[in-house]
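[Q] Does anyone have a clean structure-token version of this?
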Amino acid sequence: MDIWEKAVVCSIDQLKTSMASGANLFEVVPCKLQLHRLDKIQKRPKISCFFEGRTSRRVAIGLTSIALFGNAAVGNSIAADNGYWLTGPLPVPYAINKINNEETGSRSFLKKGIYIANIGTKGRMHRLKRYAFDLLAMADLIAQGDAWNYVRRYLRLKSTFMYFDFDQVISAALPDDKMPLTDLANRLFDTFEKLEAAVRKQDVPQILSCYGATTPVLEEVMSRMT
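[A] Here you go.
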């Protein structure tokens, strides 16, 4: 019942009382009505569900994470041993065989910050054969004459993988095969360094000459990695 309904009820009650007592109907009947200021009416506090909603979302996310990754710890022990799982900082590979440049102690084409997973000896031999084929197909890019930056990045990426793959293949080879493989790797990487330097200078005649010397070595790698 609002304020105006209360006023009407009050007036009717007082009118009935006056008629019962014999008062004049046209006599003004005073009625005291206590009106409350609207600005003093207390509003009921609204209950916000934001906190509860946020909590429910967190609970839902937590339950989903448990459902999806609850068994992750079981697989971690298996994945940690397959060569693809990293449990620490990015390892820095290094070669243990004599395939570096004797003057510099390294190779100029090597890229840093590349993770090379352990895919086994057969996997590395397959990758060496595949990357040799990819570099043989690079003749089309060299013939274009306007993709030197791409050629250099492509050469460095492929040759870096081949460098570390050759090192592991040599380590796993039989004693009689270690020296021929080491000689093949050094001949390949020597031509890679010359080709990479020529591409960096964008010396077209030198690029064609170095690539021509690299092609037969790549073909030998493909025939050897079978």
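[Q] Thanks! Anything notable?
[A] Residues 53 and 59 are 10 Å apart (CA to CA).
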